[in-house]
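Reviewers of the previous submission asked for a worked example of the structure-prediction workflow described in the proposal, so we include one complete record here. The input consisted solely of the amino acid sequence. No template or homolog information was supplied to the procedure at any stage.
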Amino acid sequence: MISNPFSYGNPIRDPHRFYGRRWEVQQIVGRLLSSAVESTSVVGERRMGKTSLLNYISHPQVAPTLGLTADKYVLVYLDFQGLADITPTRFWQRVLGKMARTLQDAELKEWVGAVKDQKGIELFDLEDLFDLVADKGLRTVLLFDEFEYITQSPNFTIDFFAGLRALAIHHPIALITSTRRELVELCHSNEIKGSPFFNIFSSVVLKPMSAEEVDELLAGLLADAPFPLTIEERDYLHHLAGCQPMFVQMAGYYLYEGHQRGYEGQALYQFVEESFAQQADPHLNYQWNHSTESEKITLLAMLALNRAKKEKEPAPDAEQLSKLHPRAKHDLRDLTTRGLTVEDGGRYALCSSVFADWIAHEITAAAGEEEEEQSAEAWLRGHEEVDKGLGDKVKSVLPGFNKKYWPIMGAFVKELSLKLMVDEVVHMTTLLLTR
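From that input alone, the workflow returned the following structure tokens.
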């Protein structure tokens, strides 16, 4: 049996399996090759490919092809995930330890090792060390994955970040950090948030892949597959996974496995969708729970409008969504960046048919667990802004939703009622109950 070429549990480490991200790589490397040796902050939602990107740039087979040759650059990759208790001394010990293993110059290895083994590592020691590295004609690139574990740790004071900034400004040192949000938003104190440390970075926001990049990934990984990828299957994977790298890998994995099991036609698609939905559930749950109430309302509006349209009608645009929820235009930018919605020609849809079904399942009450209408009536009495003019009809719909989502549904209904007639409000709300 040929091994499955797709993987979705771990970051990509084999550069031959890395696809897309040409512009992001170009921007990061271009700053490293400049005379100023500039730093970059890579920002992206979880599982968007940040670690894979840093792995690719620092890979010993790839770096020389990008101009980051070993005779000019020292690339040091460190992942800080889970290191909540790390201290500045331990930080530099890890950096210097990895640096010593990377260096080819025996004399530099000895110098780096000597500083690493000191009981306390002072800024002056680091400045002297990086002066010696620069004297050897080397530029140092520190690739810090999950850097929020550093910025959010109270062990790291403003003096640490001031020292790190001084090293990057006065020595040929560049930092490439990866975080889930902008660096300045991930500080444990306002003092650090106002630090000039963050001014040395240019941001690269890692968004979902383009449709062309997804096609390139599918074609590349399936190049040696014992079955050809049909146009129908390609379109199905786009429909199921959107352009989130992890979801594409996940959907591709189960398509490949389905073929290996001998499934064809509808049986193949059913196997892929059921397997994908099961594996995607915790990730969709995380994304939903880390969305604001306004973003959730925008997602609900998108779901309702897409279910209300006829089969060949286009998906809603920003104006149509804004008629149901005034903040939709603002939310769409972040939702699309995070990969929860996809934009095509100014039209918006949820990233995946599975995500649409997941939202409907999440917000609706399980069979037999619906609340009584009396309970809905009592809740509405405490929410006059929803009850006004809508109470009787909304009262009959509300029990179908999970009670913990009644506040969000109330806000959703309130927004709808400002634009639509009562019957239209009830119709749009009922569409969300369709699983």
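DSSP finds 21 helices and seven strands in the chain. We consider this example representative of the routine output the project will generate in years two and three.
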